[in-house]
Amino acid sequence: MSPSWLLGLVFLSFILSQVKVISSRDIFVIPNKYPLFKQCNKSWGKDVMEHDTICEVGCLMSCCAMALNYYKISVDQQTTTPGTLNTWLRNNGGYLKNDGLIENVLQKLQNVKYIGSKNVTDSQIINNLDNGVVTIAHVRNGTHFVLITGYAHHPSENWAVNDPFFNQTVYKTSDIVGFQVFTMKQ
Question: How high is the mean pLDDT of the chain?
Answer without folding.
Answer: 88
